[in-house]
Design goal:
Elements lengths: L15 E9 L12 E8 L1 E6 L2 E6 L2 E5 L5 E4 L8 E8 L19 E3 L2 H18 L6 H21 L11 H20 L6 H8 L3 H12 L3 H18 L5 H7 L5 H12 L3 H13 L1
Antiparallel strand pairs: 1-7, 2-5, 2-7, 3-4, 3-6, 5-8
Helix pairs in contact: 1-2, 3-5, 3-6
Length: about 290
């Protein structure tokens, strides 16, 4: 039977995740330190950090490591579109040739510029943790811990391995934008029957309405609200074909309290009123 030994840690590699969350730096934070290891990954936006008295510019895809006792503070550089960060506090880890609960960084720089491949993987892990952390499913902590272990191993490899030439492929920024747009579409499909606004979408995604509109238009050619309208009218069309209730009932089921507004939108998209569309479908079925 094969024997597995840790090749990165002095002991079993089971770090404790003390806290983790996504944070939008919309307010000024204070200069502080922790008694544990804290990492911050920039999911979107640009900003600055003061770390041990040195100011660093940070952007999407950067990973910051603040070892125990390291003073740090995030700085807002764009109040209308501040950075969105994934922040986690970790203990009970001891990498080889490093201090306990610390990560020894190349040249002592606390801001790591990772390869596009590693950025993609860490970004995916962060969003998986964010999603899992919002559930009440049993075993939630262990799935969070599993993703955090992957992040730490990717981080360790990035430090330990010599830099490799970048492989030409999908840029990290494009990947990240596509992922966000996919999540917005999932949100719209799951909530089309509810009152949905751009501000609600932005709040749910922890992104600014301006940024969401920009990347959604860039990736789909349409605005989030127009995309939502298409989802709603498509569902309404199915309900009309199946004769599932009155026009008012169907309008309410796809998120429209105003039946007149619903009918106007339906005719704009399909060229006929909901009532006429249902009647034509019924007549065709009776032939």
């Amino acid at each position: 039977m094969a024997s597995f030994q840790s090749d990165i840690s002095y002991e079993e590699f089971h770090p404790t995740v003390l806290y983790c969350s996504r944070v939008r730096d919309a307010r000024l934070t204070y200069y502080h330190s922790h008694s544990i290891l804290e990492i911050a990954y920039i999911l979107s936006g640009k900003g600055q950090y003061i770390i041990d008295g040195v100011t660093y510019d940070v952007k999407q895809g950067d990973l910051l490591v603040c070892n125990p006792g390291v003073m740090h503070q995030s700085i807002i550089t764009n109040p209308t579109d501040p950075t969105l960060e994934f922040v986690a506090g970790i203990s009970d880890l001891h990498f080889l040739n490093m201090e306990p609960n610390s990560i020894q960084l190349p040249d002592g720089c606390p801001v790591l510029n990772l390869t596009n491949e590693v950025k993609r993987e860490i970004s995916r892990c962060c969003y998986e943790i964010i999603d899992e952390n919002m559930t009440t499913q049993p075993g939630r902590y262990y799935l969070v811990q599993a993703q955090m272990i992957k992040i730490l191993i990717l981080l360790y490899r990035s430090i330990a391995e010599k830099p490799k030439d970048e492989v030409v492929g999908v840029p990290f920024e494009s990947y990240s934008k596509s992922y966000v747009v996919q999540r917005i579409i999932q949100y719209l499909r799951a909530n089309y029957s509810q009152h949905v606004s751009l501000d609600q979408i932005a709040q749910n995604m922890y992104l600014s309405p301006v940024y969401i509109s920009k990347i959604f238009k860039e990736k789909t050619g349409d605005s989030p609200i127009n995309y939502l309208i298409q989802i709603r009218l498509g569902k309404a069309k199915e309900m009309l074909e199946e004769n599932r209730g009155s026009i008012r009932t169907i309008a309410a089921q796809v998120g429209y309290d105003d039946v007149y507004h619903f009918s106007k939108l339906f005719k704009k998209y399909y060229g006929v009123s909901p009532l006429y569309y249902r009647k034509s479908v019924i007549e065709e079925g009776g032939e």
